[in-house]
Design goal:
Helix content is 85%, strand content 0%. By secondary structure, it is mostly helical. The chain has one domain (2-69): Helix Hairpins (Orthogonal Bundle).
């Protein structure tokens, strides 16, 4: 079960890092000047953070499904 546990922890870490990235990007957007070009980087970081969270959630779902299948096979 060490492998499943490690994968689970990595997926949760990915979600946490994605949310941290979203929080920083939102803060950067809120404090940006009126110059629209100053928003380019933070908006791209916002999208990347969202994609990181989504990918990590999908990984977590796959881990749960795999572990469920293993438990069903074992039982």
């Amino acid at each position: 079960m060490q492998i499943g546990s490690s994968a689970y922890q990595q997926a949760l870490l990915g979600i946490e890092r994605g949310f941290n990235r979203l929080e920083k990007a939102a803060s950067d957007i809120a404090s940006a000047d009126a110059d629209p070009t100053a928003l380019t980087g933070p908006v791209l970081d916002l999208i990347a953070g969202q994609q990181q969270v989504e990918a990590s959630v999908k990984a977590l779902e796959t881990i749960n499904e795999t572990l469920g299948t293993l438990i069903d096979v074992k039982a």
